[in-house]
TrEMBL record, chain A:
Nucleotide-binding recorded as keyword: yes
GO BP, sorted A to Z: meiotic DNA recombinase assembly; reciprocal meiotic recombination
GO molecular function annotations of the record: ATP binding; ATP-dependent DNA damage sensor activity; crossover junction DNA endonuclease activity; four-way junction DNA binding
Ranges in a coiled coil: none
Source organism per UniProt: Digitaria exilis
Protein name: DNA repair protein RAD51 homolog 3
TrEMBL record, chain B:
Coiled coil: none
Superkingdom of this protein's organism: Eukaryota
Domain RecA family profile: 29-213
Protein's UniProt name: RecA family profile 1 domain-containing protein
Function: Involved in the homologous recombination repair (HRR) pathway of double-stranded DNA breaks arising during DNA replication or induced by DNA-damaging agents.
GO MF term list: ATP binding; ATP-dependent DNA damage sensor activity; four-way junction DNA binding; single-stranded DNA binding
Single GO cellular component term: microtubule organizing center
GO biological-process terms attached to the record: DNA strand invasion; double-strand break repair via homologous recombination; reciprocal meiotic recombination; telomere maintenance
SUPFAM superfamilies: P-loop containing nucleoside triphosphate hydrolases
Chief site of localization: nucleus
Localization per record: Nucleus
Entries under Gene3D superfamilies matching the protein: P-loop containing nucleotide triphosphate hydrolases
Similarity comment: family membership: Belongs to the RecA family. RAD51 subfamily.
Amino acid sequence: MLSEEQSQKHITTGSGDLNNILGGGIHCKEVTEIGGVPGVGKTQLGIQLAINVQIPVEYGGLGGKAVYIDTEGSFMVERVYQIAEGCISDILEHFPHSHEKSSFAQKQLQPEHFLADIYYFRVCSYTEQIAAINYLEKFLGEHKDVRIVIIDSVTFHFRQDFDDMALRTRVLSGLSLKLMKIAKAYNLAVVLLNQVTTKFTEGSFQLTLALGDSWSHSCTNRLILYWNGNDRYAYLDKSPSLPVASAPYAVTGKGVRDAGNSNHKRVRVT
Amino acid sequence: MMNHDQPSAKDQCGKIWSGIQLLKDTTENKHFLPTGLEGIDTLLGGGLRQGQLTEVTGPSSSGKTQVCLHSASLVAAKNMGVVMYLDTSNSFSASRVATIIDGSSDLFELGLDLQPKDMRLKSVMRSIICESVFDIFALFEVLHQLEVSLLNDKVNNGGSKMCLLIIDSISSLLAPIIGGKYPQGRSMMISVAMILKKLADEHNLSVLVTNHMVSAGNGAVKPALGESWRAVPHVRLVLSRECGSNICTATVLKHTLKASGRTAKFVVPS
């Protein structure tokens, strides 16, 4: 079991600092929840992961496909194309062209191929969301090369229209168990993007992740994205094997990268 | 006719115990299994008691899984018996077990630090059976099979019997079925409780389960699973962790031998 774990590759997030606090990147066989205020870069990170999972094995990636379940409609194809181009240019920079690397592999590094390997589902209600997740198991049985499932965002359809909170809790816990099962059975990473809400505790209002206390219990890892002045930071809030830590990151024209190079940063829109 | 070994399950059914027999059984058989976390062991009066069901509850990321991993690692490393770890959130990690053992100060006492690292880890992992469970029916199946194998004396690792059963977390499995109009959920919860207590008593196991917190109105939180579950565990601990630190606090909610309300701090080593 240990050797299996040690040979697991992680999905790089694009930012070295972020990878470090995550222990190398997003882990397969685990459900990672990423939450933050609007505008901090959750969808950007989701798209970056959908691209990064496809980095071929020769270049240190997993060479897998991605399933992207979009509940809010924030998947902008032009941006995905841009991020794919950024990823490819980084790969080519990192691995300069040599005669050993097959030219076929290099030809495959086209943004179109990256886009073609993302399976996109658009859901418009919570019943569709539940149906999509139930269908996933069959879908993954037929497409064994999917290595990441991203749900952006898991909260959206559960925030309004729910009169019965107990029903919401039951449905959500059932959903999270199914996702855990899928992650383990098909050896892929599940990434759930979540929104924030205010919570009234001990006499003050605090920002916490949406969907309640029961939901916060049902992921393996949790990453919280927040603003610190004009910089974006990520805080690893929950992990079974890593200590809590914070790391800065930036959203550039090419995608999610390390903070520090302030020329291309996308500024905070307040 | 008094047995000096642990009485078999057949003897226990319907057998009437005298006070002297009970005392003998308690002193000879009902040992404390240490968790390896000093504060918790002090609160528990030595550790997890065999024959008892201990519950660890707390908000997300307060250290519950760490308590489980520490107990499993230490009990396996000290060769006290076989540990069965039922994991519902893909949090069990062999590398974390390795880190815990390597960092443990007890090793020096046991003379285990003389063994090479991978040999040590192999012998520890052989004593831990880890299974992933993702719904309540799978849990019933696993527990039933466990019952059968324990009766046939099959669960042992070259002579040592099973002594610790950990379910992390039982509330994730029960959350999708509890609540709402139909009482089947609660009756399943009580069935699980009965089976666990029976296993603990008949086979001298210590059972450790984790629970999460739900809101109790006015911003307060309370352990999940409701009023019916409150009476089930013999010992209940509540954990909490200050944001950004490794120091967790444990409070005794219920204990069969000691007064409740006592707290202790413990550190989760990284």
